[in-house]
Amino acid sequence: MDYESIDTIIPTLGKAGISTPIQRWEKNSHSRNFVSDTARVLIDVSLTSVTKTFKEEKEPPSFEIAGPREKIYFDPSKLRCALVTCGGLCPGLNGIIRSIVLELYYGYGVRNIYGIQYGLQGFIPKYGHDIVDIKPEAVANIIKKGGSFLGSSRGPQDVGEIVDCLERMNIGALFMIGGDGTLMAATKIADAITERGLKISVVGIPKTIDNDIHLVSRSFGFDTAVEVATNAIRAAHNEAQGYPNGIGLIKLMGRHSGFIASTAALAQQDVNFVLIPEVEFDLEGPGGFLDTLEKRLKLRGHAVIVVAEGAGQKLFEARGEEYDASGNVKLNDIGLFLKDAAISYFEEKNIKISLKYIDPSYIIRSLPANANDHVFCSFLGRDAVHAAMAGKTKLLIGHWNNHFVHIPMTASAGKRKQVDPHGKLWSSVLDSTGQGSLKNG
Amino acid sequence: MDYESIDTIIPTLGKAGISTPIQRWEKNSHSRNFVSDTARVLIDVSLTSVTKTFKEEKEPPSFEIAGPREKIYFDPSKLRCALVTCGGLCPGLNGIIRSIVLELYYGYGVRNIYGIQYGLQGFIPKYGHDIVDIKPEAVANIIKKGGSFLGSSRGPQDVGEIVDCLERMNIGALFMIGGDGTLMAATKIADAITERGLKISVVGIPKTIDNDIHLVSRSFGFDTAVEVATNAIRAAHNEAQGYPNGIGLIKLMGRHSGFIASTAALAQQDVNFVLIPEVEFDLEGPGGFLDTLEKRLKLRGHAVIVVAEGAGQKLFEARGEEYDASGNVKLNDIGLFLKDAAISYFEEKNIKISLKYIDPSYIIRSLPANANDHVFCSFLGRDAVHAAMAGKTKLLIGHWNNHFVHIPMTASAGKRKQVDPHGKLWSSVLDSTGQGSLKNG
Amino acid sequence: MDYESIDTIIPTLGKAGISTPIQRWEKNSHSRNFVSDTARVLIDVSLTSVTKTFKEEKEPPSFEIAGPREKIYFDPSKLRCALVTCGGLCPGLNGIIRSIVLELYYGYGVRNIYGIQYGLQGFIPKYGHDIVDIKPEAVANIIKKGGSFLGSSRGPQDVGEIVDCLERMNIGALFMIGGDGTLMAATKIADAITERGLKISVVGIPKTIDNDIHLVSRSFGFDTAVEVATNAIRAAHNEAQGYPNGIGLIKLMGRHSGFIASTAALAQQDVNFVLIPEVEFDLEGPGGFLDTLEKRLKLRGHAVIVVAEGAGQKLFEARGEEYDASGNVKLNDIGLFLKDAAISYFEEKNIKISLKYIDPSYIIRSLPANANDHVFCSFLGRDAVHAAMAGKTKLLIGHWNNHFVHIPMTASAGKRKQVDPHGKLWSSVLDSTGQGSLKNG
Amino acid sequence: MDYESIDTIIPTLGKAGISTPIQRWEKNSHSRNFVSDTARVLIDVSLTSVTKTFKEEKEPPSFEIAGPREKIYFDPSKLRCALVTCGGLCPGLNGIIRSIVLELYYGYGVRNIYGIQYGLQGFIPKYGHDIVDIKPEAVANIIKKGGSFLGSSRGPQDVGEIVDCLERMNIGALFMIGGDGTLMAATKIADAITERGLKISVVGIPKTIDNDIHLVSRSFGFDTAVEVATNAIRAAHNEAQGYPNGIGLIKLMGRHSGFIASTAALAQQDVNFVLIPEVEFDLEGPGGFLDTLEKRLKLRGHAVIVVAEGAGQKLFEARGEEYDASGNVKLNDIGLFLKDAAISYFEEKNIKISLKYIDPSYIIRSLPANANDHVFCSFLGRDAVHAAMAGKTKLLIGHWNNHFVHIPMTASAGKRKQVDPHGKLWSSVLDSTGQGSLKNG
């Protein structure tokens, strides 16, 4: 991957000239180390690439390390902050909300913290959602619960109206937790803020249960999702073994990437086929999916299939016209498509199968975070606060090479991480499933 | 309920004249108490009814208590036994298999125990499923796993061929674990055995995750099913609360009875509507389901609905013709029907909702039994063995008034237990949900 | 068991002359059935005993069935109620609190509900614990959490001071959730109330995680306790198998009864020795525990032992003097005693063992109730309210032959349910463990 | 930290001259990428340090990246491999065993794989433990179970006898999974092998549930341990809140490091005091632990304390002589020590407390790995096989900067990773608990 062209400069609202309040820290004998803006972590850690870069007398690309700064930009006693969660539910949302609120309140002494309800809708007057004044007590116990304490909604809203709302409320720091679309909106909001000459820090925490954010090695909620997905695989395995020619077919999340499908398959080790967006397969013909499935049934009498929701989209192009009458939704649902395709295939061959289809997505994404994700979320939230207090803006809090880092929104937006078909993860999946290429010829 | 006409006499193959081997028991200082055939437990425990019966100088109906008999019919050293599991998966199948095998082997010294694979298919030569010779080691650890160690299948098979197989294998005791259809088949098998003059004990262990077997106060797997169903309800609640006008709709098992839906709703207490087969509701019109749902959304902004798969079947009669083109499967799926109905209803009213539909059935039924169900299954299996060894036949092992009992197959077959719309369970559901009658007018 | 002498008459405060408010119920088409005071369930359900009783022209003993009465004693708009939880934590306490509060508030319209904090201490001024005014919102979500919303404490308090407090607060109904000692106190409180001519209903909900309350077939929290105890057994089993001569020793709750130990052993099936208070065993000598343990290690290389905390108390009498120097606490701890005894025994024999001791009690009892226990608690709480509203007093809410019933405190107090050494449960444990009598000779 | 002096060269047995068999891989369209020995990942990823190193014209320290090599040293058809697990149980042992066996068998075609039972004892004839011939079927399902499939034992054995055994069995590759002591033994074994001129690859997989291995950013089982430890904290919290002046005291694993204690405290967020080996505290005096605990009780009425088993060891030095009579074991148990200290302290002050002590260690370490740890273990096992097949020896498989790497045993042995008292983890713990310095003055 070409890391050299990555933008790694974090915009700021101005000079951070106020000393960070340390009343909480100074009572600890081990005084807290502040992080300097010059502390940076290499993006590419390959010895070869780094050596090459230095040989060319260039500086290797690096990210600013996140954490508390010695000087801050905002006066905590005056600052008003807002939080919003957008898009689909994801384990860990409440942990991040809690962490941001507690760090603002106890770490810096900020007293005006507002929750924008139901995603971007919450900024827009016509929806009539109340703004919530958040106190620490209100969020102390929300991590035991899944979902979002603030609610969420999908879809874009007018950027001008959003900034109007921020201006009206006199917000100084806005924390936006959301996926692709939200971060795109965050970029536009930050630009509009600059245009209006306002001083509002916009800090994003990237949310995607699919773990496919560019330049973010891990996104919160992913670990929980994998853990819970294994239950569905176990169920599918028992159903498959339970009947002659039993097939368990599980659709897992992953519109553009197969990280959940691949990782869950490795975690459970009972899976015979993993289908992901990054790796094409043929449905029919010798060596194709159905043919290989038939061989597997002959050999072992049952099969477990995990399909990421974005896998096999080319199949819809090929067969598009057949499905027009049934409406768009069904057209693109690879899980139901494969279910129907397998049933037809074996019916034509007069082979009795027993196929069980499982779609656990809502059960997974609405759960509370597991321990690992919760710890991760608590760091993300704190670092988001440190970044905003320092007057940094238009950035994401990410995790890279074992450090929490600042990533300029422009560096990550519009790109996506995917499973490398030649990499360690997918190779391990192939080893574990023995599924082969699933291609003709 | 009229209990008086219930058949409570257990058929036997002949005189139990062999002393029960007690090598295992005698080494325990607390020697095992045998159960006498005259030990019976009242079916109806109402003081009023029992008094009335005695006043009329009749004997109140009662069940024989299950357990080891002092004399047995079969010579353990010669006996050959067979086990089969039929129909849908249910938590606890492996626990029962294990318990039967260990009791036969260690309790009585039976050495020839055969597993019939894949349900009734396993008896029929044309399917070509192997018979498994089961040793204790093979089943020692199967309770950690869901599904059925022996596999299963649905649908009837020819009774003659089944009995042919039993005769060919020289089976003396057949243990059948299955639902309605299986117990009906068991009855016919037992009759055919009698007709041929064979001496084969047929003992059934009723399986229905729905807990709706007549004269059986609790069926195995039900407790596990309720426990796991609460996870789906929790997910639906988080999804519902997460969005403006959020609706979580969960379809749970229950073709003819609402026990799982009602009990899970009480266990989780986050449910606003429970729809079950036993209680009719109106879909449309004032006071109907959709109207009440709209009112709930106006009041609280979200709603959680649990629907048993057999609820609202009359809706299909009324609307039957509209759905003919789409095929039979969809016609009867109340979950998808309600989903579509709610979406249309609010679309017409121009109210934006966010509905999430969850169908966790396969995840639930394929799990291992929880502790409670496992203990229950271990008793069911042992008592099935005791009954068969004593030469009893054409009976079920049931649980009634805190005792394990023998129920003649003829007493239970073809009838069904249902939620009493005036009883304690449904009243508690109405109290907990506050849903009202959901009827017009 | 002799049931005939059981007191089954429930005292009342006076005539229930007020119609039960049914505003909540009447909006349901299926109007709620009230339960009549004459509806009773037989205590003994054996056909033989009941027949004998009738032959002798006596009425068989029976319990009043719990549930809502058509007429109530208290005027809900005037009634002030108090709740208190006492003794050790137990899964389900919060479910009962919630159920009582919601039934009082929504079912009857009672608006003054007070929580007494930290058990009986909460009545006594010198401790200074606040009384809590409980509204439904405060308890809506407490079932997700273990422990007690009201806190608890151990030990008795002055009955006079308690009744002073009730009188001062003008309480009409007192709900006491607690074990042996609490129910004994409840009896005395009820008597003092009568002496003072007050009209206060005292309703007890028996709490014992050990499930050993006389005349109560099941106590709340027990099922959760068994389920969680199996995790500890699984851990002990893995530790035992993990090392040469590995021994896993788990101490489970059960001061006077071995229900948890026995049931958990059946649920997990990995246990080789179960020691309970009801069944004596010899520690040393041929056939004794240590000798049998040694044989088991020789045969299989590992062993799992479950000991109820009240087992083997006679061992302390015999060896009492040896242990005096070490203090009282250690003297009575059978878990640590057996650990030391086994270590010494094998050391003397020069056999290397690896013994792991696990005491999971606090982890078990402080958990939230599982689904099964929660449903059970919600019924207990509601029925406690129905009983109090009807003016009944000095009673417990119990569960008997599948019905919730009213048990006079005098019938249950001071007696205890125990595992029958000749019964089905213990026989199954012996079959499952193969431990034998563990007695010399 | 000074990374420059780290030894990063992996010893080899000789030239890897055999082409890696790729029968399994070539059927996949996406052929597997081999990893070159020149692929290395930087150890230090700080931009400043790396720049400085290059300015000094030195090469920055780096680790070899793990993975399959194009050429291997051993002929799979002749190779005989051995596996051994040593020391305490840890979640994931079975996952690593399974992964090594399956990769050897299916990935390379190795057919002779031997399990050494019960740790290093298994090599020594006098213990008489059998060697197990492991086939894939034997390990296919072991990941559902905790513990070690091969058993384990503690303590050193004679290195000469171990190498005798390897020589006798004609082993070419030895996989050792264990902690500190085991890796020290592995180094000596590798040295003895070299001295004897044998060609045996020794590959270590570092095991420490405490996550404190030098140069290994994460050790398997740690994530599972943290997850399960949160249950104990939740229990302690409920117990603490349940009583007046309730204290929940949990001892967690961590002889030399506080990673589990710190991370679990962040995951659960109900903890008020975390005590770890890396940070000293005063027990008595103003500002000390007991004084601060008293203040906390006054303020909030309850407290939750997590103590790592290696914390506060200096307290034993000070008080050593008082405890001599009671034996060594008790002397060093900080959990029981703090329990006793707190009880005495409050007794003297005449303050009634209710302290519950929880030690969940055995329950934690004997569990199966969670999904995250299992995926991790499956990579560790595969990479261990790749390293051995390539003829590399005296190395560990580690994880560093998101890559699996080869670490020379000499680089890691005898050093330890610890929680940095000025770093992000401990700062977050201090923020979360608000415990302060716990030091006098």
Annotate the secondary structure layout.
The structure is a homotetramer of 441-residue chains.
Chain A: E1 18-19, H1 23-26, E2 40-42, H2 47-55, E3 62-65, E4 71-72, E5 80-85, H3 93-108, E6 112-116, E7 131-133, H4 136-139, H5 159-169, E8 173-178, H6 180-195, E9 201-206, H7 222-242, E10 246-252, H8 259-268, E11 273-275, H9 289-300, E12 302-308, H10 314-323, H11 328-331, H12 334-348, E13 354-358, H13 361-365, H14 371-389, E14 395-400, E15 403-408, H15 409-412, H16 424-433
Parallel strand pairs in A: 5-6, 5-8, 8-9, 9-14, 10-12, 10-13, 11-12
Antiparallel strand pairs in A: 1-4, 2-3, 3-15, 6-7, 14-15
Q: What is the top-level CATH class of the largest domain in chain A?
A: Alpha Beta
Count of individual beta strands of chain A: 15
Largest interface: A-D, 70 and 70 residues
Query: CATH topology of the largest domain in chain A, which one?
Result: Rossmann fold
Assembly annotation? homotetramer
Share in β-strands of chain A: 15-25%
Unreliable stretches of chain A (pLDDT < 50, length at least 5) are 321-331
Task: Provide the number of structural domains of chain A.
Answer: 2
Any idea what the radius of gyration of chain A is? 24 Å
Distance between the termini of chain A: 31 Å
Question: Structural class of the helix and strand makeup of chain A?
Answer: alpha/beta
**Shape of chain A, please?**
globular
In DSSP terms, counting alpha (H) and pi (I) runs of 4 or more, how many helices of chain A?
A: 16
Helix percent of chain A reads 25-40%
CATH architecture level-2 label of the largest domain in chain A: 3-Layer(aba) Sandwich
Outline the biggest β-sheet of chain A.
Answer: 9 strands, mixed
Can you list the strand order of the major beta sheet of chain A?
A: 2-3-15-14-9-8-5-6-7
Roughly what is the average pLDDT of chain A, rounded to an integer? 91
Subcellular location (chains A, B, C, D): Cytoplasm
GO molecular function (chains A, B, C, D): 6-phosphofructokinase activity; ATP binding; diphosphate-fructose-6-phosphate 1-phosphotransferase activity; metal ion binding
Enzyme class (chains A, B, C, D): transferase
Catalytic activity (chains A, B, C, D): beta-D-fructose 6-phosphate + diphosphate = beta-D-fructose 1,6-bisphosphate + phosphate + H(+); beta-D-fructose 6-phosphate + ATP = beta-D-fructose 1,6-bisphosphate + ADP + H(+)
